[in-house]
Amino acid sequence: MTITLFVATSLDGYIAGPDDDLSWLFTDTDYGFDDFFANVDTLIMGRGTYEVVKSFGKWPYADKANVVITRRSDLVTDTPGTTVFNGELPELVQQLQEDGAEEVWLVGGGELVKSMLTGGLIDRITVSLHPVLLGNGIRLFPDGFPRTALTLEDSAQYDSGLVQLNYHVK
Amino acid sequence: MTITLFVATSLDGYIAGPDDDLSWLFTDTDYGFDDFFANVDTLIMGRGTYEVVKSFGKWPYADKANVVITRRSDLVTDTPGTTVFNGELPELVQQLQEDGAEEVWLVGGGELVKSMLTGGLIDRITVSLHPVLLGNGIRLFPDGFPRTALTLEDSAQYDSGLVQLNYHVK
Fold it and tell me: What is the pTM of this model?
């Protein structure tokens, strides 16, 4: 099983600007997302990310297993294929393996990423680095997790100015 | 006159780890720094950066004009070619132009970068992105400056896993 953080950020490391602003995201092409997503069987995301995606309208990940991770035991999800998990993350990973998950997409957000990194539970990181400084917003990597060595697998530069970086977590 | 932020960061955007840790910086090659530095006539840096560089021993920028920007009026510098500036940044930029500065290296750190971005005073940004997550430390881009559009000029991937990104500030 492989857990991949596949995410778009600004050069200053935000996954969303103020008020969950995502208007800066390039949509002229999919930047490899469709190929990546086709192989994914399971999505895991924090509650904040879940609420943001849900606010866009029709749930876009209906044909995959969706797991929302939250400390709140009262979260009710009404989107297709969605379960809530409020236990410890290593237990979740073990459970996903037992369920036969193979390609897991860690959607976000920052707090979940931090907890997953702290637990050494992320295998790969793909960052689509947008040519913009947002100056404020929600950080992909909040302060406060252990130093983590990465291995660059490859990088790709697009005409739009986006640079995509693929790393293995050591 | 061109003001360039030329800097190394971790993937999570730190210019130094906890306790000013710089042990993660690659030193196997200069990653274009020597060519860049050869053309620089003037360096500007915040007080924190000044103190860190000074702590390394012999002042490495003795043959350039060095300007330390601080709000403290009592800072005394004892390094070669170093002056202190505690006025407004647009005045500094005007003064540098009048003094005939052409290639200015904005060395750091985060608070000065933020003030320079807020003033729209940076022309180019070169980031040497190291394949590591530090998890804590001093951020290159602290929260709290206006959204700033960038144009990617080029990027280069090195065998070490470092990716260097060159941007114009729009």
Answer: 0.95
Facing residue for A131 by CB, picked from B12, B136, B167: B167
CB-closest option in B12, B141, B163 to A133: B141
Helix (H) or strand (E) holding B112: helix B110-118
Q: Between chains, do B144 and A154 touch, taking CB under 8 Å as contact?
A: no
Contact of A141 with A113, CB cutoff 8 Å: yes
Residue numbers in A near B127 (CB within 8 A): 11
**A168/A158 Cα distance (integer angstroms):** 21
- State how far the Cα of A144 lies from the Cα of A82, in Å rounded to an integer: 29
ipTM over 0.85: yes
Say if CB A92 and CB A69 are below 8 A apart: yes
- Report the amino acid identity of residue B18: P
The CA distance from B28 to A107, in Å, is: 35
Q: Do B133 and A143 make contact, defined as CB atoms within 8 angstroms? A: no
Residues of B in contact with A146 (CB under 8 A): 135
CA distance A159 to chain B (A): 9
- Residue-range domains of chain B with CATH: 30-161 (3.40.430.10)
User: What share of residues in chain B are helix, strand, coil (percent, to 5)?
Assistant: 20, 35, 40
Task: Tokens for A16, please give them.
Answer: 């969303």
Q: Which residue of A has its CA nearest to B145?
A: A135
Please report, in tens digits, the pLDDT of each residue of chain A (170 residues total).
999 999 999 999 999 999 999 999 999 999 999 999 999 999 999 999 999 999 989 999 999 999 999 988 788 899 999 999 999 999 999 999 999 999 999 999 999 999 999 999 999 999 999 999 999 999 999 999 999 999 999 999 999 999 999 999 98
Torsional class of B139: left (φ above 0), alpha (ψ -120 to 50), beta (otherwise):
beta
The partner residues of A6 in beta bridges, in order of sequence, read A126
Contacts of A13 in chain B (CB under 8 A): 12-13, 141
Two structure tokens written together for B123: 């022309």
Chain A partners within 8 Å of B162 (Cβ): 152
